[in-house]
Design brief:
The chain is mostly helical and about 80 residues long. The chain is about 65% helix and about 0% strand. It starts with a helix and ends in a 6-residue tail after the last helix.
Length: about 80
């Protein structure tokens, strides 16, 4: 039987990934891209992967950095909104 601590960690990770996805989507829309596929194509990111990122599915740190660079912002700027 999983421990309460493990269950809490999984829930925290899920919420963090959802916040990441929401932030990525908000930045894409702010950049004027109503369609995530066009943004991904233009920045040479796999369209299917980018869709997963916006949905808050797991991603590698190197993938997150590529997305952040596509927005032309720093890591600090990325995490300046939507995260506690």
């Amino acid at each position: 039987m999983p421990s309460k601590k493990t269950d809490d960690n999984v829930a925290d990770n899920f919420e963090d990934l959802k916040r990441l996805g929401a932030r990525i989507k908000a930045l894409r829309i702010k950049a004027g891209f109503t369609n995530y596929e066009y943004f991904a194509y233009k920045h040479e990111i796999s369209r299917s992967q980018f869709g997963r990122y916006e949905r808050g599915e797991d991603l590698r740190y190197s993938s997150l950095l590529k997305v952040i660079r596509a927005f032309g912002i720093t890591v600090e700027e990325f995490f300046s909104e939507g995260f506690d």
